[in-house]
Amino acid sequence: MQKFILSCVALACMSAGQIWAQGMEFHKGSWEEVLAEAKAKNRPIFVDAYATWCGPCKYMAAEVFTLEEVGAYMNKNFINYKLDVDVKGDGTAFSEKYGVKLLPTLFYFAPDGSLMHKTVGGASAESFLKNSKEALAEETQLYAQKKQYDGGKRDKEFLKKYLAMLANASEDALANSAFEVLWGSLSDEERLEEDVFMWIATYGASPKSKIYEYVSGKREKYKGIVGEELFNSYLESVVKQGITEAIESNRIKDEKKDLPALVKEMQAICPEDAAYVKSQTHFIYYANVVETNPAKLTEFMKAQDDFLSKHCREWAWGNAMAWDVVESENKKQYKSALKWINRSVSLSKNYFNLDTKAWLLYRMGKNKEALATAKEAIELAKTAGEAAESTEELLKLIEK
């Protein structure tokens, strides 16, 4: 990407009317200083809540915030600020106060410091500017809509608009509540609409909810509307939610009795996927239990290996677990991790899991295979427009 550099000479010669190509300018002081400046200048604040390890955060910093058109708009309309949420002090305090769960989280504050708008995740320059413009208009500000919702506004079009904004901000608790209200206002005919099913799939996944009970009773109708693949994907999310709810409510008191009962309950949701459901239930359960009960490590490792190497259907799970093995250099798990990452690649070959596989092969001393995989990962990164620093670093190590 073309970069624009303002030399000291050019800066000195710049006239007051000149506009130079540059990206966003970020305030360098403390959060308290930013709040004080915003109040004094009566300007809203944009905050990029990020972490150094976050891929989408790096993308935004390198490919979006540096663009001329982005800088022109954001520098004119906001005081821009970056906060590393892992850094003690302003970063961790801000993260705790505003509930940062996913990265990056992009916040927009009014000049008085009140929260106006929020979005979550990486975005293209076009989407980022759209979100930033919406943050300045009351009719499109998330928290202005929340105020109307809290005040009793309940018409269907408003609720759909509000839900979309909550989803964009990953405000799941508020969205679940709003969707229940919307669901109660829909006719049977409206509940079968395809766009409504998208909300069902996101916020109607609890097996204990009336929404799931309704949808389950009309399985064939929904399959005909949205397709069997999408409907089965919804059922899988119901299973995950059911397992999570059972663990969080401490339902598994007698493991020999209650865990098999939970498996049967989840298998009833997806009767055609009995082996998958059993494996997933054991994996999620033991992953939670082992955190507080190290004596369950053997059970966890067995469940982990069975699920990630044979049953997992999401490439990111196997990739994340294999990367943990790479980082910890746990030699005892290298062979298992290779099975996990191979399944991840078979599900969706991409730069991230090929990078993990290359590093794992290198740790295992398989330098020839590691080199070939690393080169393939870099090629995929170029195609996808991803940064490949991790793999380039690995190539240097292999060459040594």
Give the helix/strand layout.
Blueprint: H1 8-13, E1 26-27, H2 31-41, E2 45-50, H3 55-64, H4 68-77, E3 79-84, H5 90-98, E4 105-109, E5 115-120, H6 125-134, H7 142-150, H8 156-168, H9 172-185, H10 188-191, H11 194-203, H12 210-216, H13 219-226, H14 228-248, H15 255-267, H16 274-292, H17 297-311, H18 315-328, H19 334-347, H20 351-363, H21 367-384, H22 389-399
Parallel strand pairs: 1-3, 2-3
Antiparallel strand pairs: 2-4, 4-5
Helix pairs in contact: 7-8, 8-9, 13-14, 14-16, 15-16, 16-17, 17-19, 18-19, 18-20, 19-20, 20-21, 20-22, 21-22
Number of strands: 5
Topology as a string of helices (H) and strands (E): HEHEHHEHEEHHHHHHHHHHHHHHHHH
Percent of residues in helices: 55-70%
Distance from first to last alpha carbon? 31 Å
**Mean residue pLDDT:** 92
Question: Reading side by side through the largest sheet, how are the strands ordered?
Answer: 1-3-2-4-5
Give a short account of the largest sheet: 5 strands, mixed
Structural class assignment: alpha/beta
What is the overall shape? globular
Beta-strand level of the residues, as a percent range?
5-15%
Radius of gyration: 25 Å
Any overview of this molecule?
This protein has 400 residues and is α/β, with parallel strands linked by helices. The chain is built from 22 helices and 5 strands. A 5-stranded mixed β-sheet has the order 1-3-2-4-5, sandwiched between helices. Strand 4 and strand 5 form a beta hairpin. Helix 8 packs antiparallel against helix 9, helix 13 packs across helix 14 and helix 18 packs parallel to helix 20. It starts with 7 loop residues before the first helix and ends with a helix.
